[in-house]
Amino acid sequence: MIEKTDNDVLKRSVSDHWEANAETWTKHVRAGYDIYRDALHTPAFLEMLPDIKGLNGLDVGCGEGANTRALARAGATMTGIDIAPTFVRHATEYEQQEPLSIRYQTADALHLPFDDAQFDFASAFMSMMDMPQQSDVLKEIFRVIKPQGFFQFTILHPCFVPPFRKTIRNESGKVTAVMVADYFANIDGNVETWWFSSLPQEEREQSKPFNIPRFHRTLSEWINMINAAGFILEASVEPMASEELAAQEDVVADTRVTPIAWIVRLRKPSS
Ligand SMILES: C[S@@+](CC[C@H](N)C(=O)[O-])C[C@H]1O[C@@H](n2cnc3c(N)ncnc32)[C@H](O)[C@@H]1O
Description:
By secondary structure, the protein is an alpha/beta fold. The chain has helices spanning 7-30, 35-48, 66-73, 85-97, 134-144, 201-206, 219-229, 243-248; strands at residues 56-60, 77-82, 103-106, 119-125, 145-156, 164-169, 175-181, 190-194, 210-214, 232-237, 261-267. Helix 5 links the parallel strand 4 and strand 5 (145-156). Helix 1 runs parallel beside helix 4.
């Protein structure tokens, strides 16, 4: 467990952990092993997104850039930032090979290197629950968005993916329930160790699992942090796999019982 009282230690640890994960993470997501992201969560995110053609957007915690590229393909001029330089290098190399006018930069979401009101919108795909001091990160994102701009983000669902979640299946393998625990545990930097569920055994033998510091907050804490930053909560989606998708990609079948992700869109008021 990471020292809770020293924010610099925490921040350094978060960037060190993600830097250590970045090479394998990039390889595995580009090989298609993040099935929740590719088959369910990103399509639901894009479906919920307002028209972004011609808008100037910031993707916070962009990783190797797959979702930043999805927003650029939807017509926005994108900037992506991430705390791990190796992710930024992979995203930049992709941009050089297949240009979409995306600018990438290594930066901490807590200290965004941008002027006030510079962006029409911001996005964050599965990164906010991996950051310490989310209340300050929300204020920082609020600062760089123009009045009337929006911030749409997705996180692990605060209620259904607390620090403990287990999928229960019957004898024939059908998902019948999901067990959760530790919803009220004050998790601030505990390191979770895992692979993508669909990673084949031979790949597991060749690669180390990810070590991810987790910053779990309850649903009420999220709503209160959102309000304290000055945002208005405008829309919310909890993606559920269709019957067809669950039959095709068994790994996402648990989302027919409870969601894994919470997607929200926040609006910055006009003044
Ligand atoms: C689960 S990955 C998601 C990556 C990408 N958004 C995607 O959807 O594929 C979380 C990302 O958040 C980044 N991250 C964590 N803390 C950060 C911080 N304080 N500032 C910027 N990025 C951060 C990590 O380096 C990592 O790339």
